[in-house]
Design goal:
The protein is mainly beta. It folds into 3 domains: 61 residues, Roll (SH3 type barrels); 53 residues, SH3 type barrels, CATH 2.30.30; 109 residues, endopeptidase domain like (from Nostoc punctiforme) (endopeptidase fold (from Nostoc punctiforme)). Helices cover 11% and strands 37% of the residues. It is built from 4 helices and 21 strands. The strands form 6 sheets. Strands 16-21-17-18-19-20 form a 6-stranded antiparallel sheet. Strand 9 and strand 10 form a beta hairpin. The radius of gyration is 18 Å and the shape is globular. Keywords: Hydrolase, Protease, Thiol protease. Belongs to the peptidase C40 family. This is NlpC/P60 domain-containing protein.
Amino acid sequence: MAVAGQWFAPHYAVPEPKSCGIQGTDILSADNKGARISQLLPGEGFAVLEQAGDWAWGFSEHDKYVGYVRADALVEAGQPTHVVDGPAALLFAEPSSRAAITAVLPMGSRLAGHVEGAFLVADDGYVPTQQLRPITESVADAVVAAERLVGAPYLWGGRGVGGIDCSGLVQIAFGLAGIDLPRDSDQQMTAGGPATGEPCRGDLLFWDDHVIMMTGPDTAIHANGHWMRTAVEPLADIVARLGEPIAKRRIMI
């Protein structure tokens, strides 16, 4: 069991695989009025361990994050064929950019379908293939993926549904580069190996409850509450606000 030994329960149920629906959803610490602790993006898997009323309790399949989601946000599990690799993708009601938009899919969203002409034909509509990448292909540079989200609103616990937080940005960007990282910054602090010497592009620097990604030796990108958005700024400015980082990690791709 993915959560056996981590969470106590009087019994362990067989997980029921589901996928997140086209709108995405928050993962909450408790049902109904719990705090948002993370998010599921469209097409991501969620293993349901228990369902009561409007709420399902379980864990996200990609990072084993445990929490509650609205049961009506989940659909039958599918096999994604494509992933959104730009800032967002548009889901159209018809295979035309002039058609009605039925959803805006954040970076990292997963879709199942087949390509006809310039569109992926999915169960819920049509997505331009220029906004997608086959699920089996990775971007060459996680920093490039992160930079596509410059200006995205900051949202604590966000992974792209309405906004994104610091560790969500890092997780999504490296995920598109084929590297699976944990969800939270304290967990990411153990990923990869120590970053020694001058900071390199892609290095991760950490403070208590915050992580940044270096875009070069002197600049970094991060989703942050200071600017309330994803921004690129000089490392010196970040250090002036937060102090010296407590850890530096290098993720090898």
